[in-house]
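Q: My collaborator sent me two sequences in one message, no labels, and asked for predicted structures for both. Can we handle them in order? The first one she listed is below.
A: Yes, handling them in the order given. First sequence, followed by its structure tokens:
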Amino acid sequence: MNKKALLIIPPDRFNEDELNHPKEELEKAGVTVTVASTKTGEITGDNAGVATAEVVFSEVTASDYDVVAVIGGSGTIDYLWGNEELIQYLKQAYEKNILVSGICAGSVVVAKTGLLSGRQGTCYPVDVMIDELKANNVEYLVQHVVKYDDVITSDGPEGAREFGQSLVEALSK
């Protein structure tokens, strides 16, 4: 599969499973994966794992990718929920028919774009995230993955592999 994915993590405290499982599923299907953040270099996860952000998301063109995914973790709440540049980036990706997706706290970033308004979505099952979905007119569902042809959300580590498989399936169409 000659497709490309941009996985966006916070500059600190991403969730390792939410990054690594989808990344594995995408790469297994032949998708070229680029890890991005608000800075480049080594980034430490919630559980002391590390990842390397190869690019700053705002310095690459979303239309160079087939899917853009916002990865969760405690740092996503602190650094990405209120990141207006990221919210605009996702909206622009969507306008160019790029699949927009998020897992756990990353689903909230997707909800904040308005792309899920009036639709269903999922996130990690904690009140602070569920309340954010509802505040953005998204009906919260208790399931690992909620998928549309243009937007996919996932609940967190437990659904991370299924999230990756859903991205691969969407890119196969």
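Q: And the one she listed second?
A: Here it is, processed independently of the first:
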Amino acid sequence: MAISRLFALFLLIISCNLYFSQEIVIKDDKVLLDGKQILKAEKINAAQYSFFSMKDDEEVLLYRYMDHETPRYVNDDDFILNFLTEKTQVESTAMAKTAHFMNSRKGMEKLVRGLLKERMINHDGELNPERVAVFKDKYHENITEIPLRS
């Protein structure tokens, strides 16, 4: 009896999780949210991705991964997010531990999922300027302004 109740509770939790999860897929240079295209994506090279608005095809976000020419040493790695329409740049090491896969399609899907979670982009792929400012306050580290140690 207790096992059937636990199983029912487990099924309820799983179904709620599936119901509220959003599927992000990048396929054929399209960013799809639950099957609806919200952005266009372009892989520039192994360390850069660009995202474009569906409304006017304007570049809204440029992602760059920086390994500082030390591919085997990841402690100095960081990423830069340029929110071009908002003229805002965020440099951070917060994702450096996972950044080794960030140049992949799956990594970019995770990035978009994070932007949705932070409410920086809405379900139509439009940037929210207030949330971009909050994101910058939370994660920006001024890495290019930090002097190098010799």
